[in-house]
C-alpha cells in the first residue's frame, strides 16, 4: 500500500508563504509598474504643459520685442535636458525658426520627422491640424506611450495697423519618457526586493515558530492520541497554554482521563456480568442470542459457540404453554419489562427453574434495539419452598391435630364435667346440711377451676391459630365495669379485699371497642390481682387520654399484693410461665392469663404494660383508641368486704361513690306451662338438664338424636329446643337446618327457639351453631343460672327464681 506523502506544517506553511510572496511580487511588479508609468506620464504631462505655457509666453514676448536672440537662448538652454529629444519652433510654412538642436534651424520640420515612425508622424500631423484649427495647445502621448508631444500655437508678429492676420508659428516639443519610466520601475524593483527580504525573514521565523511552537506540540498530541487509540489511557500530552493547541491538548488529556474512567467502569461492568451469580443473555430483536455470560453456560451445560446465534427456545422444557410465551412477547414488544418463573431444561435434558427478568434495551430515540435477560437459578429455592410448604402443611396439620385434640379433650372433659357440676348444683339447691353443702362446694369449686384451665388452654390455642378477631361495637363502659364488679365481688369478699371499679372523667356514654375482648382482658387482670393479693384492695379504673392525637382509653388494674421482682417482669407474659414455681403451688393456675391478656390487647391495637415493686403491689394497664359517643357522668362502684349482701341495683350515682349491697334472690315466674324439648344423646347430661328444668316447673321432652327430635316436633308443639351438636343418626347442626326448612315451608308453625348445648367451646363452634339456624349457644358444663337466663330471654319472660 502506498504511504501518504507527509508535509509537516513547519515546511508547508513557510513554502505557502514563499509561494504567496512570489505571487505577490509578480502581481506587485505588474501593478506598481503600471502605477509608476501612469505617475510618470501624469507628472511629465503636467511639467510639459507648464514648460510649453512658459515658452509660449516667453517666445511671444520676445517676438513682440523682435528679440529673436532671446528666443534662441531660451530654447538652446533646454538642450542640456536629454529627455527633450526635439524642441522645434517653426512658422506657418514649416520652417524651423529655433531648436534645441542648432543644426535644425532654417530647415523644414517635416523633413526632420521622417525618422519618426509613420504612425507617430501621422498622429503629429493630426494634432497639429487641430491646434491650427482651434488655436489651442495640446499635449499628448504617442501610441507606444514612449514619449510626450506638445504642440502650442504662437503669435510671432502682431501689427495693430496691419489689416491682415498676425503671423503665427508653432512650438513643438518631444519629451522622451522611457528614461523616466525606467527609473520609476527600478524604484519599484528596489521596494519589492526589500519587501521580499522582509517576507523571507518572516517566513524563516514562521518556520521556526511552527516547528518549535506548533509542529512539535501537534506531533506530541498526535502521538498521545495514537496511544490513547491503542488503549493506553495513562499517557498525557503534558502541554499547557491558553492558545488553541494548549486547549486542544488539555481537552485530549481530559478525554484520556474520561476514557480511562469509562473503560474502568466498563471493565467493572464487564467483570460484574462475567462473574455474575445469575445468568445474563442479550438477544437481537429477532430473539437471536448475541451474548451469554459464563454463568448461563455453567447452568445450562452448553458451550458458548453452541449458544451464540441461537434462539432462547433452545432452553425450552415444554412445561409452559403457548399463551405463556404470547404474554411474554406482548409485554416485550410493548417496551415493558417482563418477569416470571420459568421451567427450562439443560443440555442434558435435566429440567431446572429460573426467575427470569427480560428488559427491552432502548436507543436514544426510544426504539427497542436489544433484549436483556437476567435469569436466576431458583431450582434449590423451589425445592426448599416445596419442602417449606410441606413442612408448613405438616405444621398446620399438627396444629390442626393439636386444635382437634384440645377440642376433643375439651368436649370429652366438658361432657362428664357437665354431669358433675349439674348434679352438684342440683344437690346444692336441695341439700340443707351444712357439712354436705361444704363438700358440694368443694366439688363445684374444683370443677369450676378445671373448666377455667380448659378455657385458658382453648383461648391460647385460638390466639396461636389467629382465630381471634376484634369486633368493635358501641359499648357502655359503666355497664361493663358493673358486670365485672358483680363477677368478682364474691372472690374479693372471700379474701376480705376492697374491690373498686371506677370510670374517671368519661365524656361519652358509648365507646367503639370490642366488649368481649376488653372483658376477657380485665377479667384475667382482676383474677390475677385478687389471686396474688392477701389484704388491702384491688382497683379497676378507666379514663380518657389522648393517644397520637386521637381519643383513647386507659384501663388500669392496681393491687396491693405480693408484687413482681424486677428481674421477672419480662417473663410474666410468656405462656405457661409464673414468677417462680412456688407460685403455682401456692396460688394455682397454669400461667396463661397474662399471655392471653397481652395477645388480646395487641389484637385490639394496643399494648399491655406493668409497673410493680416486690412486696408493694402491681399496676397493670393497657391503652386503646376508641371512637367517641355521647356524653355521660362519672361514677364509681365499690364492693367492700364488710358488706354481707351481693350487688343488686347498680345504678350509678353522680354525687358520690356508694357501697352496693349483694343482690337478693328475686321471685319471678317459673316454667309452668312451658314445654322444652331436650335433644341429647348422653343420658347423664340429659338427666341433669331434665332435673334443672323440672325443678323450675318446665315440662321436659327428651330425644336421643336429631331424627327423634324431628318426629316429636312434627306431632307436638314445644316452646324451646335445647340441642346437642354431636349426636348419632342426625347431628344438631343438620337437625337445626331441617327445622328451619320445615318452618319456611309451613310444615312447622311459627319459630321455635333453638339453643345449642354442646361441649364444643371454640369460637368457630359458636359461629357454626348460629349459621345452622340456632338462636343461642351454651357451652358445657352448663351453669344452671346461665341456662335459665337464656331460656327466659328466648321465651320473652323475666328471669325466674334461680335455685342455687
Notes on the protein architecture:
With 804 residues, this protein is α+β, with helices and mostly antiparallel strands. The chain has 4 domains: 12-184, 2-Layer Sandwich (Beta-Lactamase); 276-377, Beta-Lactamase (2-Layer Sandwich); 471-659, Histidine kinase-like ATPase, C-terminal domain (Heat Shock Protein 90, 2-Layer Sandwich), CATH 3.30.565.10; 675-794, Response regulator (Rossmann fold). It is 48% helix and 19% strand. It contains 20 helices and 24 strands. A 7-stranded mixed β-sheet has the order 16-17-15-14-12-18-19. The protein has a 5-stranded antiparallel β-sheet with strand order 2-1-5-4-3, with helices on both faces. β16 and β17 form a beta hairpin. The radius of gyration is 67 Å and the shape is rod-shaped. 25% of the residues are buried. The model is unreliable at 581-585, 631-635, 648-669 and 797-804 (pLDDT under 50). Keywords: ATP-binding, Kinase, Membrane, Nucleotide-binding, Phosphoprotein, Transferase, Transmembrane, Transmembrane helix, Two-component regulatory system. Residues 338-390 form the PAC domain. Its EC number is 2.7.13.3.
